[in-house]
Amino acid sequence: MHPDHQGKGLGGALLLHLCELMTAEGLTTARIDTHARNMGAIRLYKRCGFTIIWHGIEFSSSMGVPLEKVHLEKQLG
User: Fold this and answer.
1) Element containing residue 53 per DSSP (H, E)
2) Model confidence pLDDT, tens digit, residues 20-71
3) What is the C-alpha separation between 42 and 35, in angstroms, rounded?
């Protein structure tokens, strides 16, 4: 999100709405991953109820290199 619009609750509102849509579709778990140093995103995901379930090195096919990443998960419903 552009820095001018950060800190206004938009990201959290969008993420929570997406979780509601997933729940309505019958999904029970939401998973997301990000770069381990993306602390702003990790804080947002944790505020929205996600917990870190994995932290390690993973190959990024889009960047072509191994990256330190975290995987987060939230139980829906």
Assistant:
1) strand 51-60
2) 999 999 999 999 999 999 999 999 999 999 999 999 999 988 889 999 999 9
3) 9
Structure tokens of 10?
């938009």
The residues, ordered by sequence, that sit 6+ positions from 7 with a Cβ below 8 Å of its Cβ are none
For CA atoms 44, 47, 50, 54, the dihedral sign is positive
3-state secondary structure of 31: strand
Q: Which two tokens stand for residue 46?
A: 């944790």
- Name all domains of the chain by residue range, CATH numbers in brackets: 3-75 (3.40.630.30)
